[in-house]
Amino acid sequence: MTDSAPFLVAACQTVSGTHVEANLAAAGRLVAEAAAQGAKLVALPEYFCLMGASDDDKVRVREPFDAAAPAGPIQRFLSETAAKHGIWLVGGTVPLAADDPAKVLNTTLVYGPDGAVAARYDKIHLFGFRKGEESYDESRTIVAGEPQPAVFDAPFGRVGLSICYDLRFPELFRAMGDVGLIVLPAAFTHTTGSAHWEVLLRARAVENQCYVLASAQGGKHENGRRTWGHSMLIDPWGNIVSVKPEGEGIAIGAIDLKLIEATRGNLPALRHRRM
Ligand SMILES: NC(=O)CC(=O)C(=O)O
C-alpha cells in the first residue's frame, strides 16, 4: 500500500576530500541534519566517501558486497546511519570490488530504515570528457554495470536509481517504468554542470512526470577538482522545489504524490506515447 501523504526528502551536498573517515563524518553530519528536519529519504552524492588524489585511490578502498552483512566501513556506515535515523538512505556511490582487480563498480546501495540493503544499482554509463586541461576517463578504473534499470519500492511509492553521467541517457529513465521519484547521486564537473546540469535534470522530471532528487558534489576539492553542486529537488512540472548551489549542505523539500497524479492527469503525455 502506498502512503500518499506529502513527505520530505533531502539531497546532501558534499565537497569530499581524500580521506574516507573524514568524508564519512561529513556525510553523517549532513544526514543527521536532514533527518532532524524530518526527511524520510536522504540521498548522498556520488563519490561521497572519497574524491581521491588519483582515480586509482577508489580501487584501494573498494569493498566486497554482502547484502546480508555490511562488508566494509563504507557499507557499515550506510547501514548504521539509515537504522539510527530510521530513514531510507540512498548511499551515493560505493566503490565495490569488481572481477578486474584494477577496477571497481561505482554502485549506489540503498538502505531501508531497518539498516538492510533495499536496492543496488551499478553505474551503467561511464563518463569521458576532454577539454583544455580537463580530462576524465572513468572507464580506466570503473567497470560499467549491466544495462538494466534498478528501482525499489518504499511505502511512499516506487523509486528509480541512476548515477551522474546516466543523466544524459534518457532511455534509462524511460526503462524504469512508472516511478514517482528518480534519485541521482552525482559529481558533475563545474564545466559540464554549469552548461547542462539543470536543463537535463528538469527535462528528466518533465518527460517522466515525476520528482527528481539530485545529490551532488559541489565545490573545490582537496584533489584540485571543481564540481558544480546545485543539488536539488525538482517536481513533475519541472519546478525547482529546493536547491543548494555550492558547498556542503542539504536541499530539502516535500514530495506530494497527488501532484504526480494531477500532472499526469492534466497532461497525459506518458499515455500518449506511441513508441
Ligand atoms: N562526472 C560525471 O560522471 C558526469 C558529468 O560530469 C557530466 O555528464 O557532465
Structure commentary:
The protein is α/β, with parallel strands linked by helices and 275 residues long. It has one domain (7-266): Carbon-nitrogen hydrolase (Nitrilase/N-carbamoyl-D-aminoacid amidohydrolase, 4-Layer Sandwich). It is 25% helix and 29% strand. It contains six helices and 16 strands. It has helices at residues 20-36, 57-60, 73-85, 170-175, 190-208, 257-266, and strands at 7-13, 39-43, 88-90, 94-97, 104-111, 117-122, 128-131, 134-137, 142-143, 150-154, 157-161, 181-186, 211-216, 231-234, 240-244, 249-255. The two termini are 30 Å apart. The mean pLDDT is 97. The structure holds the ligand NC(=O)CC(=O)C(=O)O. Residues 127, 164-165, 168, 187-189, 192 line the site of ligand LQR7VSFR.
Task: Give the gist of this structure.
By secondary structure, the chain is α/β, with parallel strands linked by helices. It is 25% helix and 29% strand.
Describe the SSE topology.
Layout: E1 7-13, H1 20-36, E2 39-43, H2 57-60, H3 73-85, E3 88-90, E4 94-97, E5 104-111, E6 117-122, E7 128-131, E8 134-137, E9 142-143, E10 150-154, E11 157-161, H4 170-175, E12 181-186, H5 190-208, E13 211-216, E14 231-234, E15 240-244, E16 249-255, H6 257-266
This protein binds the ligand NC(=O)CC(=O)C(=O)O.
Ligand LQR7VSFR is lined by residues 127, 164-165, 168, 187-189, 192.
Throw out a few tags for this protein:
275 residues; alpha/beta; Nitrilase/N-carbamoyl-D-aminoacid amidohydrolase; 8-stranded mixed sheet; 6-stranded mixed sheet; 6 helices; binds the ligand NC(=O)CC(=O)C(=O)O
